[in-house]
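Lecture 7 notes: from sequence to structure.

We start with a single chain of 951 residues. Read the sequence below before looking at the structure.
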Amino acid sequence: MPQIGTPLRLFFSASPLLAPLKPSLSLGRTKSFSFFTSISSCFSQRRHAAARQSSNIRKRSSSTFKEDRSRYGNRDKGLLMDETQSLAFNKRKAEGGDKSDKSKRNLQHKERKLNPVNTIAYVQILGTGLDTQDTSPSVLLFFDKQRFIFNAGEGLQRFCTEHKIKLSKIDYIFLSRVCSETAGGLPGLLLTLAGIGEQGMSVNVWGPSELKYLVDAMKCFIPHAAMVHTSSSGSTSSSEAAALPNTSKFVDPIVLVKDEVVKISAFLLQPSSSQGSAKKPVDMSVVYVCELPEIMGKFDPVKAKALGLKPGPKYRELQLGNSVKSDRHDTMVHPSDVMDSSVPGPIVLLVDCPTESHVQELLSTRSLNNYYADSSSNGTETTKTVNCVIHLSPTSIVRSPLYQKWMKKLGSAEHIIAGHEMKNVEIPILKSSARIAARLNYMCPQFFPAPGFWSLQHFEKSSSDSVIQSEAPVAKLCESISAENLLKYTLRPYAHLGLDRSCIPSLMSPSDVINELLLETPDIADAARLIRNLWHEYRETKEEIHPVEGNGVMIEEPWLDEKTKPPCLENIRRDDLEIVLLGTGSSQPSKYRNVSSVYINLFSKGSLLLDCGEGTLGQLKRRYGVEGADNAVKNLSCVWISHIHADHHTGLARILALRRDLLKGVPHRPLLVVGPRQLKRYLDAYERLEDLDMQFLDCRNTMKGSWEAFEENNESNKDSLSTGSPDNLEEMSNRVTTNIESTIFARGSPMQSYWKRPGSAVDNSPAFPLLKTLKEVLTEAGLETLISVPVVHCPQAFGIALKASERSNSVGKVIPGWKIVYSGDTRPCPELVEASRGATVLIHEATFEDGMMEEAVAKNHSTTKEAIEVGDSAGAYRIILTHFSQRYPKIPVFDDTHMHKTCIAFDMMSVNIADLPLVPKILPYIKLLFRNEMVVEDELDDAMNALTATL
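Now the structure, written as tokens:
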């Protein structure tokens, strides 16, 4: 059997000079101090005062959470502070050139002594996708000194953070297929590992088919500090080869890992393509076989002495399995004469058959014959007993007669069904965020609706050891159990072989969460009652809101006068607009906040996504339920991405793939994706793996000057929007460039945007057909304009302004449309201020608190006060702050004096446009939920400084 070692590994390290490693079977590696895993629990308790004295700023800066290192791969220690103080932004980072000149040491693999006897080993379900059905579950194979993960769907990193599973200890990640469902969480995971410690962590990734295409697609946002080396089985030898290789050449298993404690082999399944349909790399899947070695029985010296053997070298020979001659008798002594029975090594199979064609290939694969219970009848020499099979296949496939026929070949193996099925939806995977959501829902259900998985009315709590029932009268199915979060199957010690449910989370209901809350903070009930009264009065009177007496929390403010509402809110309908903050954290997912995504719900007119960080689909399903989220994805009109950093776009491929599947066979247009030009490279490479059913439009082509050029071309040549005279096109291109150069962001201006490089004049004419499509999409959605605005953060970073079309009331009065502005990531900049003039809602990033100006400048982000000042100077009616550093796990630090028309965003917060007048009114109440989280802990600061000093 061919054995494949390091050449089949995708190797990440923090060294830009790392050369490809030589082939080796060693899985050890040097572990830098794990900053991420060591301080994550500390940060969960950390809170800062609303304003910090300047003398404490330097102390605070030394304990900086390194979220931007994992996202950018840049080191900001070389920042020239005199430059940042004068320009108030990090020019080198905005240009994409803020790299550290510090030399890095190569990560070396270290040898680890592995003991196959005295070790703990188990497989465990890492429940990604089980409550939301959005991705394939992951499986952990655990040993004392080794960790292996099978599949890395979206949400894996967040799940492991929630349940204290240390991903920094992972040696290998194996993919059962190469697609967004199984690998959606890979970019974020690798970026996080690259940012741990000073040198980063290494990890090996192996998968079938063209894994290198996926890795190549990540190179536009993988940090420069990480080197990538890929190879995979079943890949084409030439990048120009269209057809995938025939699996007949992969009859023998591919040995991926073989050491003292485990042997992991891969069996490739590539079903034959039907006539007229081309094979895609995503069609190839893998059956993984994990075999633990046999443990020899205990040597019995009493039996050896009775057979005439003297203590000495012959004892050792017998323990090694060799026969020896008796010292006193003319006979041979065999190992079985003096050794107890051997303990067989457990065997685990992980099977992913996405289609019936894969099942047929599975049945015809002879290489698995040794693992079948009737293998002796097939002429095989040895029979290997399979103890556990984890089925990653969809439930519909598992129930099919063909698949059931294959399952019965495995004899008495324990079958765990981990594919998508409506099980465990009442047990949220992310219990911490679900608890926060339930508490917020209790306080203010108008802005914080109940999560979708708790609003389902047809819970059917199944016993964990129940047999899967078939919907049709077919032959009796193999006995199996449904996978549950953190379900284990113990492999070592052998005496405990079998299922272990001790880690499975208990059922958590909203009532349990609220009862716990009321015990902690009894006066929360009064606050919730006051909010209900406030809402009732507002809905009933629609007049000036009067102060609510009771606990002295609320203070009447003149800005809540109904007469100050902007004209666009006159007679507004509740089905006109809803803003749903799906992800409100920065850099990487945490227990309480997912990364950036804003869902613009236009109800019957469709919807838009503004940014789409990892886990966006899961958040949609938590907000609307499984079916509701599917409908939301089907009805998407457009997706807009602000910039190429991973926390803003790595959830996009999964959204596109799901929409493709949901609309298969239904007439529809490809989804329009508007984003920075680097994003197109990532999506194009992904489309080599699977069809994403999309069209791409560069953000630059949706800037104000580009729209003006398009409209002028539309007027001058209505018959052919995509053509024009060469002179005319050149004139329009020059005009667009001149328009951009004349703005405050022109080169030479201190606060310039680096979206355009010298000599890269923008020619919009090739984009005119897509602009026409976008215009049609906007019209159908009731929108007048979608304008991208260059901002100051990194190359090709944008904000967006959306304006609704005018409408008429019952008497024919023309009412202006609302306007939403979303900043993306940025320093405060005049271009965004100008775009926000008269905005109904400004959604602005506020990554840092006011006392961390130096951090904000170094990372090209905004502080809370700066974000509010942008909205104030632009005359925005309401400001929603989002994109908070994960140093603030539950609520950020802010100054109450700035919050007169502002609110703090939380995940799944849903703001209906009709309720905008009340947005700032609820903030003092919400603070009650987190009042114990907003204290200064100087002891923690000291601990953090000590910890930082050791890195």
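DSSP finds 29 helices and 32 strands in the chain. Keep this in mind for problem set 3.
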